[in-house]
């Protein structure tokens, strides 16, 4: 009977877990619909900004005008600066599979890469999970914000110090890492060099128009455009990461629910076998007692 009681308690516990994971999946599904729509709208603007910067960068590079337009398009003037900002996004909450692990692994690889070059690394983190991981391991976190509720003003303020420090010559690179939303089943890791603007992979990028900027101060316009690009990229990474987080959690909770239901099925079989065994033993004892009384 003791074994039956234990199995019954386990069944109750696992059934409760199954109900919780199923509810969490439903919640993530609803949240994903809203986050996915916002991510799609924001991606269109982010892509448009990127296209403009790609075209400008290639024209500047073609005419060798990177020095005139400032160091945001070239890192030549920063070769002696050994400090890099690594900004990355994780979730505030867990139970989303390997979502955070992918980002953390990518950041760890970047840290290892720059440490070998004897760089000073400044970590700036959006999301409690990433902050907990690196703080626990003794890394110095320069800045931290929550990633649960993306806000443009907060994102712009968060990354503004990195832009200022890059302009002042305190840092030589600003890198942004986040695990983004590709579709409901796949999350895609993004590692983006924000500053200087990377044109190393744009050699075959087509340029069909001439650069024509008004008013007469193109440097001021480009500085403003680059600032907007970096700020919005930070904001988009928060939105994109949030959509991917809900997608990953939805999948994780679906898998957890299936596993819990399988455990319930297995425990039910064990419980029924144990109950049948207990009934059979009782019957044997009764029959044996009757036979002994004859």
Your description of this structure?
- This protein has 294 residues and is α/β, with parallel strands linked by helices.
- It folds into two domains: 2-19 and 253-293, Helix Hairpins, CATH 1.10.287; 21-251, Pyruvate Kinase, Chain: A, domain 1.
- Helix 1 packs antiparallel against helix 5 (218-293) and helix 4 packs across helix 5.
- It contains five helices and five strands.
- A hairpin with a 5-residue loop joins strand 4 (173-181) and strand 5.
Query: Radius of gyration in whole Å, from Cα?
Result: 28 Å
Number of strands: 5
Helix content, binned percent: 55-70%
Number of spatially distinct domains:
2
Largest sheet, if any? 5 strands, mixed
Query: What is the molecular shape?
Result: elongated
Structural class: alpha/beta
CATH superfamily of the largest domain: ATP synthase, F1 complex, gamma subunit
Looking at the chains present, what oligomeric state does this protein adopt?
single chain
Please give the order of strands in the largest beta sheet. 3-2-1-4-5
Under CATH, the topology of the largest domain can be stated as: Pyruvate Kinase, Chain: A, domain 1
User: What's the order of the H and E elements?
Assistant: HEHEHEHEEH
Poorly predicted parts: none
Helical stretch tally: 5
What CATH architecture of the largest domain do you see? 3-Layer(aba) Sandwich
Beta-strand fraction estimate: 5-15%
Mean pLDDT comes to 85
């Amino acid at each position: 009977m003791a074994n039956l009681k234990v199995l019954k308690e386990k069944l109750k516990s696992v059934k409760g877990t199954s109900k919780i994971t199923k509810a969490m999946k439903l919640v993530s599904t609803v949240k994903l619909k809203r986050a996915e729509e916002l991510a799609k709208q924001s991606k269109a603007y982010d892509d448009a900004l990127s296209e403009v910067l790609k075209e400008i960068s290639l024209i500047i590079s073609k005419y060798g005008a990177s020095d005139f337009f400032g160091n945001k398009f070239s890192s030549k003037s920063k070769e002696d600066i050994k400090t890099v900002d690594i900004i990355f996004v994780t979730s505030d909450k867990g139970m989303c599979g390997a979502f955070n692990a992918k980002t953390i692994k990518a950041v760890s690889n970047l840290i290892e890469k720059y440490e070998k070059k004897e760089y000073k690394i400044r970590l700036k983190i959006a999301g409690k999970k990433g902050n907990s991981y690196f703080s626990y391991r003794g890394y110095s976190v320069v800045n931290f914000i929550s990633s649960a509720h993306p806000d443009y003003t907060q994102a712009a303020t968060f990354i503004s110090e990195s832009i200022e420090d890059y302009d002042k010559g305190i840092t030589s690179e600003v890198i942004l890492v986040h695990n983004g939303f590709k579709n409901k089943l796949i999350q895609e890791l993004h590692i983006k060099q924000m500053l200087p603007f990377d044109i190393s992979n744009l050699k075959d990028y087509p340029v069909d128009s001439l650069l024509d900027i008004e008013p007469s101060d193109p440097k001021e316009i480009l500085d403003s455009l680059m600032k907007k690009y970096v700020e919005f990229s930070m904001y988009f990474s928060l939105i994109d990461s949030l959509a991917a987080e809900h997608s990953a959690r939805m999948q994780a909770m679906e898998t957890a629910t299936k596993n819990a239901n399988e455990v319930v099925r297995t425990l039910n079989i064990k419980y029924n076998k144990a109950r049948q065994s207990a009934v059979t033993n009782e019957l044997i004892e009764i029959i044996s007692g009757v036979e002994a009384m004859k």
